[in-house]
Write the structure tokens for this entry.
Amino acid sequence: MSWITKLFGRENSNDGNETDVLEKAYNDGNELAGLEEVFVDSTPPATERTPQHTSKLLQFFNRDFPNQGFQDGYSNHSKEKLQQCILKIKSDFRFEIDQLISKKRDEILRLAQSRVEVEGISDETVAKIDLQLNHHTNQITELESQKALSSEDEGWVMKVQHEYQNGYANGTKQYFDENKVLGFEDIF
């Protein structure tokens, strides 16, 4: 008995034309041979990678400042342009700090609302929320401190500023070396 007759329940049917035709089409000694090609996927399932969320501030620090400085130094090689680019780096840093502070304040508001909802129900949950509130408050204090230090050429931003300046100096040197502005070989 083939799977088609089981499916349609025509085991003892007199008008076996349809069943016979279907059986001949699918029954070449192995009734599942044709179906395996259609329904069996031999490729293993692909693993789905979940994108890891990195903060905008971390993305800022991961930028290639030495290379960016080199490119700018090679194409511009002026002190004014260097100062403009450094001011832009500091401005971008402060902007990312402000964005992160805003997110932290939103999280503090959400946690404070949750604290009000569970207060009197679970002292343990309230204590955990208080710890998170303190943690976010401390982070905001540190971020505001770093923002203030950036205007005084101090703090976290100085690492990328120095990387950029070194790249800029290397790019400027490369430009002048290639154009032999510093050498006297072309005079004679």
